[in-house]
Description:
CATH topology of the largest domain: 3-hydroxy-3-methylglutaryl-coenzyme A Reductase, Chain A, domain 2
Shape: globular
Low-confidence stretches: none
CATH class of the largest domain: Alpha Beta
Order of helices and strands: HHHEEHEEHHHEEHEEHHHHEEHHHHHH
Largest sheet: 4 strands, antiparallel
Strand order of the largest sheet: 3-8-10-9
Radius of gyration: 25 Å
Strand content: 15-25%
CATH architecture of the largest domain: Alpha-Beta Complex
Bound molecules: (R)-mevalonate
Number of domains: 3
Distance between the termini: 49 Å
Mean pLDDT: 95
CATH superfamily of the largest domain: 3-hydroxy-3-methylglutaryl-coenzyme A Reductase, Chain A, domain 2
Number of helices: 18
Helix content: 40-55%
Amino acid sequence: MKQSSYSGFFKLSPEERLREVTEFCNLTSEEQEILKDPNCLDMDKADHMIENVIGRFALPLGVGLNFKINGKDYLIPMVSEEPSVVAAASNAAKIIRESGGFTTSNTGSVMIAQIQITDVADPHFAKIVIEENKEKIKTLCNEKDPILVKFGGGMEELEVRIIESIIGKMVIVHLKVNTLDAMGANAVNTMAEAVSPLLEELTGGKAFLRILSNLAIHRLARSRVKIKKETIGEDIVDKIITAYAFAEADPFRAVTHNKGIMNGIIPVVLATGNDTRAIESGAHAYASITGRYTSLTTWEKDKNGDLVGTIELPMAVGLVGGATKIHPTARVAVKMLGVKSAAELGEIIASVGLANNFAAIKALATEGIQRGHMSLHARNLATVAGAKGEVLELIVAQMIKEKNVRLEYAQELLKKFNSK
Ligand code: MEV
């Protein structure tokens, strides 16, 4: 069985790392070229992705190591501008794999489309009439996407809500659509528009907004870990729980705690060409679903004194359509993961979020975040100063040794080393 754990991976050159990844993920030479080339997204493709295109924007793609999820090893493609995120994910995954790794599940792939119906004189009566017409609504929806239906998806359920608003009562119809391996925005928006005339006819109202909800509560990804107390020490188990308790209780802390989770989640969502904003907004809405914004993860001590952690959040990601299929690097990222379904991808993403959260609160609860950040920060500054290779390593080592991590000092050291 292939192992995603390496030691000294960070010491390799990017080419050597790519060779390791190629072997693990069976990348073709064309796929390797795509990873190496920031211009692999050609202007023509870029011009078809968004509007008013004038260029392309490259970001580093790193590899999250050591992930064992449901007994299988994965290398995780992560795109981020933030130093320390990939290292934190990999370090956490290393500790977690010592206790067996991540165990995941999901609640399916049902998305919600909302139709807002205004000007309904008798909302309670209208609600019942809509519910009575569920099969007719379902037929109209599913006619719009026969392929989705053929593969076992399509509209499944209907929910009708009456909400109070500042302009009075309105009837809100939720179409619950199984979108399988698609993120589903196109499918559900088309269905919502298609059934609107019928809903107007049934209610005598006006079908106003027709759009998916990013609060995808029927598409939750879950991951859990058990970290044996011996691997981190009993005192650290307690410290992590104290750190988590703060996030659980206080929204000012929970938002930063959840940002640390997003540090792991968004890089994988982005690398695989998925919609980062959909995941981000869904996550934060889910974090406040009880009416009080709180942590997306939980950390507890089990009866043996081991640390147990969970994450659960909406995960509307797809494998078909959109940038996932168009962007060459996103296609390679999906190949790297070797995922068979969008649900599997979502579970991996949730696991990376849990890993980054563990890494962040463990660091905060022990040595603080700055120590680990310092060498990465020094490396960044030395790079900005223009240092390369061996000289860069010397500058980083000196800045850390002298606890003088500033750009001016990196520049001064570069001058000194270059003149030698
Ligand atoms: C920094 O990118 C993320 C953290 O602030 C997360 C946290 O506070 O839990 C370290």
